[in-house]
Amino acid sequence: MTYFKLPAGVRDILPEESARLDRIEDTLRKKFDKEGFCSVRTAGLEYYDTFTCIQSPVPQANMFKMTDKDGNLIVLRPDMTLSCARIAATKLREERARLCYFSNIYNFAAGGNSDREVAQAGVEIFGEEGAWSDAQTVAFAAECLRAVGLKNFIVDIGHVGFYKGLLEDSGLSAEAAEEIRGYINAKDVVNTEIALRRYGAGEKAQAAILALPSLFGGAEVLERARTLTENPAALAALDHLQQVYEHLCRAGAEKHVSFDLGTVKSLSYYSGMVFTGLAEGVGAPVLSGGRYDGLCAQFGRALSAVGFAIGLVRVLRAQMNGEEKN
Amino acid sequence: MLNVALAKGRLAESCADLFIRCGIRAEILKEETRKLVLETPDKKFRFFFVKPSDVPTYVEYGIADIGIVGKDTLLEAGADLYEMLDLKFEKCRLCLAGFPEKNSLSAPHLRVATKYVNTAKKLFLSRGEDVEIIKLNGSIELAPLTGLSDVIFDIVQSGGTLRANGLAVLEEVFDISARLVANKVSLKTKAAEILPLISEMKKYIGEQK
Question: Domain tally for chain A?
Answer without folding.
Answer: 1
